[in-house]
Amino acid sequence: MLKLLRPAVTRILTPLGRALARRGISPNMVTAIGTLGTVAAALFFYPRGQLFPGSVVITIFVLADLLDGVMARMTGPGSLWGAFLDSTLDRVGDAGIFSGLVIWLMLDGQRALAMVALFCLVAGAVVSYVKARAEGLGMTCDVGLVERPERLVVGLVAAGIGGLGVPYVLAGGLWLLAVGSAVTVLQRLLHVYRQASSSAPRPLR
């Protein structure tokens, strides 16, 4: 669903990306700054219980994940290093966001919900790993109910609204993410299994 919004967001970010590129700022620099800002904001605001301002600041830095892609397309074909760096730092950013939530929930005495947030972090990493491993073996795995954009939107919106004092929103968002992520892992495993079962056996290194 969120992929449908990418063209509109790209048009909005294009002037900013062009201006940064003219000043010699590379897409990889934007990726690194976005991740550093995301992790720093999550670990500063969330453990203090400042969920709304934290979510706003994190959202600003998360937009760098789209901006670096816009800039990469402007400056020519994307590099292998850039693609690798972007995927790796995505995992770091996700870890920062959900770790901040886990710390706050533990400090606030909401241990059960902290475990749900921890499950969201682990399941999100597994979702990404299954796709990367499948593509590394020459298969496709672009399926699933909850991918990274959905995880970020649901998580940040739930945390932000919960930080305004609206009850049950954070808990509902985290449980929704937990269930959706588990379903996505199963969807991807089944998708890869079908491809592997229908292909001829071949030696693997």
Structure description:
This protein starts with 5 loop residues before the first helix and ends in a 7-residue tail after the last helix. The protein is flat, with a radius of gyration of 18 Å. By secondary structure, it is mostly helical. The longest helix is centred in the last third of the chain and has 30 residues. Helix 1 packs across helix 4, helix 2 packs parallel to helix 5 and helix 3 runs antiparallel to helix 7. Pfam families: CDP-OH_P_transf. Its EC number is 2.7.8.-. It is found in: Cell membrane. GO terms for molecular function: transferase activity. Belongs to the CDP-alcohol phosphatidyltransferase class-I family.
CA radius of gyration: 18 Å
Strand runs, count: 0
Into which percentage range does the β-strand content fall?
A: under 5%
Give the fraction of residues assigned to helices: over 70%
| Morphology | flat
Secondary structure class reads mainly alpha
Task: Summarize the main sheet.
Answer: none
How do the helices and strands follow one another from N- to C-terminus? HHHHHHHH
Low-confidence segments: none
On the 0-100 scale, what is the average pLDDT? 89
Structure annotation, total helices: 8
First-last Cα distance: 37 Å
Cofactor: Mg(2+)
Pathway: Lipid metabolism; Phospholipid metabolism; phosphatidylinositol phosphate biosynthesis
GO molecular function: transferase activity
EC number: 2.7.8.-
